[in-house]
Amino acid sequence: MLSKKESRLETLEEYIIQNQNRFPGATGELSQLLRDIGLAAKIISREVNKAGITNILGFDGSTNIHGEAVKKLDLFADQQLISALDRSLITCMVISEENDGIVRMSSKNGKYIVYLDPLDGSSNIDVNVSIGSIFSVYMREPRYDSALRESDALQPGVRQVAAGYVLYGSSTILAYTTGLGVSLFTLDPSIGEFILSDRMIKMPDYGNIYSINEGSYNSWDLGLKQYIKYCQEEDQESGRPYSARYIGSMVADIHRTLIKGGIFIYPHSNRYPNGKLRLMYECNPLSFIIEQAGGMATDGEKRIMELEPTKIHQQTPIYIGSKKNVEDVMKFLKEYKSVP
Ligand code: P6P
Question: Residue ranges of the Fructose-1-6-bisphosphatase class I N-terminal domain (predicted)?
């Protein structure tokens, strides 16, 4: 939390402008894009927080490209974020979990490409568990023609120029990074502003929480089974047994990991041979945030942000969190890799 002397209210807009001045030659367009996302987040937060009393809960009858029933709030969030980004004409295309292909924006010449998971964890909407929005921003590659192609969007996570999430929980929190550290903002609904609550946050190097859906235990690699067994053993010096925490909403699980340390794992399994979580609009942006806060994110072998994407909706296993915890699980995966 901010010290007393820093308690002067600093809004997201003020902070973005100040941050922009740290980029020589900044045009202010990325700042505008981040403000657009902040505006959409306020509108989504209002709907999420009153969803129980309007008829926006439940399903709208359609399914997304993954065959998942789309909830009304998913659609609302998708529409709010896309229209907010479209208005400032600096984004040329959006890729969203809720849309099959690329969404072409009004301006074909916008310099940014934005990936969105408009409302991640939507299976939790109807049971009032925290959900989140995730965004990831790339520069459009200068090319010989102005035609927009899906391939323009297939860039590794290390090329992100900004990324972040909004967590709609007991309060609404926005976290973002442009590569100069991670800052957190808490929405004050009484004034409709995101207020700076943590500047340049650093996560614990080591934590005693592990987060994984143990329902898929039987299809885990032996190394992962051995690591979880290690987490559950008594060892006071290392703070084991760890606590198990799993919300089933990635933004909420990652936010807890950012604040308290530990590790979040979504491995490959029989049901999800390539992992369930999406590389481009879940794993890359959240890995950017965690790395900027001093943590680590891999697919069990390689750094998430160095994976070369081949499809905009591709999935990947992910091991993400405090550096020491991720290093520990990778040791187990490597040690037991050749064991049948
Ligand atoms: P499971 C939510 O549907 C989500 O995409 C992530 O937010 C979350 O981490 C994961 O899936 C939960 O998946 O298989 O544990 O229900």
Answer: 11-198
